[in-house]
Design a protein that fits this description.
This protein is mainly α. It is built from three helices and no strands.
């Protein structure tokens, strides 16, 4: 994956993913691990990821 694409489209989703993982795991440490693993998997094998935009997933933020 191109670094610029990763920075522009994936990194901005990190906080949303963290909040989602925190709700599911109930642990900030585990949520951080989940985010790290997801980001690493996307970086290593973007072609295996769904073509559906993560922005289409349900918003789990409290705002």
């Amino acid at each position: 994956m191109d670094q610029e694409i990763f920075r522009q489209y994936i990194i901005p989703l990190r906080d949303k993913l963290y909040r989602f993982a925190l709700r599911i795991t109930g642990s900030s440490h585990e949520a951080e691990d989940v985010v790290q693993e997801v980001m690493e998997n996307i970086w290593k094998a973007p072609e295996k990821q769904s073509e559906q935009s993560p922005e289409n997933y349900p918003d789990t933020s409290d705002s």
